[in-house]
Known about the structure:
Elements: H1 7-21, H2 26-43, H3 45-53, H4 55-58, H5 69-73, H6 76-92, H7 98-118, H8 126-138, H9 141-144
Amino acid sequence: MLASVPKGSAEMVAAAIRTIFAQPDAHHVHEQLDVIAGMLGRQFPKLERMLRDATEELLAFTSFPVSHWKKIWSTNPLERLNKEIKRRTDVVGVFPNPDALGRLAGAVLVEAHDEWQVSDRRYLSEGSMALLTQASKEVTPAQLLPA
């Protein structure tokens, strides 16, 4: 989105968009997106269209319990996994062909998956995951969207 606004306005636009995600609950997140899209749309109509067209994707996290939001936003697990793939491929140095690189990266991913399956430490605990079934019985994402 920042690529569609002048560089001098990028910091202001980024700060405004961040306020959408700083809301305490799903209802306020949806309201804030509407407010920010309207406010930015006066100066940047293209940006407003982008925000409104991507509303469902941008706010998909609101269908999860609030306690999950920070972990959903975080890229830490992905960064850690990429770092491990890089560490393992750096040891080899030069690969004979792209398939060899794919096999090694795939092996690292399978190994990480196996570790996640048997590990006592979970990124999202069983207790917090139980909230998902509770939340889905109480409110659906479609019910949260403004009429």
